[in-house]
Design a protein that fits this description.
5 helices; single chain
């Protein structure tokens, strides 16, 4: 299954406080044959949002952005079959990671067909856990960490210009 990073690939990178913008240029990079896809994304910043919500996205904001991205992809012929998220961040408090992950799980249950929110270091890209869990056949990403995750999972990497 083709797997996609989220921030910078499907949706705008770096500004979670404004309206989510979606990357229509990505569609030209995807295979012509429409097919289900998976989203594999690090969202460790959520763990800091309780203390600094203007700088870091809340689980609610992450869920809204993911919902917008899923709707966009489905309307374009690429329904999202699974969303895999790492809520882990190496500098975050373990309790904050768990709290953010639980909040996001409750929100994903409202709209995502299949999802998993991970909270361990080995789930965070560049580790290949999410790509392997998604049975990725290729990974579309915008960062060196995405390329490393694809290499570690043994799948082709498609470099997407970062969408800001």
């Amino acid at each position: 299954m083709i797997s996609l990073d989220f921030d910078g690939v499907i949706a705008n990178y770096g500004d979670h406080t404004t309206t989510t913008r979606l990357n229509t240029a990505l569609l030209a990079m995807l295979p012509r044959q429409r097919q289900p896809v998976a989203i594999c994304t690090n969202q460790g910043g959520m763990a800091f949002s309780r203390h600094n919500p203007t700088r870091y996205p809340t689980p609610q904001r992450v869920a809204l952005r993911l919902h917008a991205g899923c709707t966009f992809l489905a309307q374009s012929g690429y329904p999202v079959a699974a969303i895999l998220i790492s809520a882990y961040h190496p500098k975050a408090d373990a309790a904050d990671i768990q709290r953010a992950a639980q909040d996001l799980r409750e929100l994903l249950a409202l709209f995502a067909p299949a999802w998993c929110v991970y909270t361990t270091e080995r789930s965070r890209k560049p580790h290949p856990l999410m790509l392997r869990a998604a049975h990725a056949t290729a990974y579309y990403g915008d960062s060196p960490e995405d390329a490393q995750a694809a290499a570690a999972a043994g799948v082709p990497f498609v470099a997407v210009p970062r969408f800001t």
